């Protein structure tokens, strides 16, 4: 009787690297192509690690904003925010760098503003400020202060 081959188990970092490489290639053809790649990735990878889902949803939010899909961008942003604890747990030493590179805060604020939900945009500014993501979020918050 032959020995059964064990499935290849990739680390979360390897899965993330694969996602980023595939997305980079797909994004050369535009945001629609990037979204198509990400949709296929979600469908094919039922067990995508949650930390990788955070990055995948962030990439989706960016592409959706570029395509003017504001409602979808808001949903993707919410998904990213929900997966931040898993992202930090999976990448404790790289978390800060990854967090600072996420587009979801910027794009989420833009999407909420485009949809006229200035209160939600303001809340997202507050969250970015609390995470220490830069003074420009304070400026955005100040420009939305009238929404309080």
Could you please describe the fold and organization of this structure?
With 148 residues, the protein is an all-alpha fold. Helices cover 73% and strands 0% of the residues. It has eight helices and no strands. It has helices at 12-27, 31-44, 50-66, 70-90, 95-101, 104-114, 118-130, 135-143. Helix 7 runs antiparallel to helix 8 (135-143). The longest helix is centred in the middle third of the chain and has 21 residues, at 70-90. The chain is globular. It starts with 11 loop residues before the first helix and ends in a 5-residue tail after the last helix. The mean pLDDT is 93.
Keywords:
148 residues, mainly alpha
Write the layout of secondary structure elements.
Layout: H1 12-27, H2 31-44, H3 50-66, H4 70-90, H5 95-101, H6 104-114, H7 118-130, H8 135-143
Helix pairs in contact: 1-2, 1-3, 2-3, 3-4, 3-6, 4-6, 6-7, 7-8
